[in-house]
Amino acid sequence: QVRFVESGGGLVQAGGSLRLSCAAFGIIFSITPMGWYRQAPGKQRELVGITSGGSTNYVDSVKGRFTISRDNAKNTVYLQMNNLKPEDTAVYYCNVAKPPYVYWGQGTRVTVSS
Hints:
This protein is mostly beta strands and about 110 residues long. About 0% of the residues lie in helices and about 50% in strands.
């Protein structure tokens, strides 16, 4: 069945970097547009960026700092996060880029201290 397993989160100081990974199961990964999402404390889950057909798009708040990449041979999508800010603190999830979202993983927590 469809399943996503996120990893790589942690505690980092502002200005630091983290690389998140997400292993995907149960989908034809190589042709599936994928997205990274995040949910900050007390807020709704939001889209961070997507990778589709070799291109990537990001929300304005992370442009120039975050980079999405994928390894189709490993069914894995990555999120490289540089110059992290306290407002990036959230639980990060991966999923398909468009609904329906049939499954949400546990996510990986990112905490950025000031």
